[in-house]
What we know:
By secondary structure, the protein is α/β, with parallel strands linked by helices. Helix content is 36%, strand content 20%.
Amino acid sequence: xxxxxxxxxxxxxxxxxxxxxxxxxxxxxxxxxxxxxxxxxxxxxxxxxxxxxxxxxxxxxxxxxxxxxxxxxxxxxxxxxxxxxxxxxxxxxxxxxxxxxxxxxxxxxxxxxxxxxxxxxxxxxxxxxxxxxxxxxxxxxxxxxxxxxxxxxxxxxxxxxxxxxxxxxxxxxxxxxxxxxxxxxxxxxxxxxxxxxxxxxxxxxxxxxxxxxxxxxxxxxxxxxxxxxxxxxxxxxxxxxxxxxxxxxxxxxxxxxxxxxxxxxxxxxxxxxxxx
Length: 276
């Protein structure tokens, strides 16, 4: 893996180079092993939190982890194109627009003891902007090369906080073209519902049950690229003990191994159907 500037990363994408890189400010990682018609993203995988913010932050490290999406990058790590955030969403949230990316409150609780400086906000928002510059260059290249593309936007959610039965998988589709891509949404839902889990977990998959797909990452790509489908794919945190801060690596591995097969199959069917 190389450490590259945002400009160097974008140049490599434009030149169709194969590479693994971390941004020079350590805010994102990207790997491209082949230029294919699909990409995976894990925007909330990051847990890093700038040290200068520690003393001012009211939330504990555990409270931050609880709202992040740990292991979502590892679930798709075997695929040819993977883009992931390294920083905690408590520093800046890549799935919110720039105006709302730096929180003042988080999940009903004030985040800071005192207001953040303008300089601190600027530093966070520069990293947010850099991520979207890379995203833009990547999707532009994929559409230019293949005509259509599909992005698997991986997230997780805390299922134990719900007071009703919730699905293992939720697809958020309220901001994508359901008329055009309805069959692709349904085949992805069906495929996810067939995954086998250890720990006697039964895989269920629903559309717009717990979340509707209102994230900025999906909206940004959908609004800027007319031939790219973004599937906001949320897994309930059955792969960890969300209250006791424990990851279950055997569950993460089971998901990764099955997505290694199911995800390219789905992407291939999508491409065969929509490529002109």
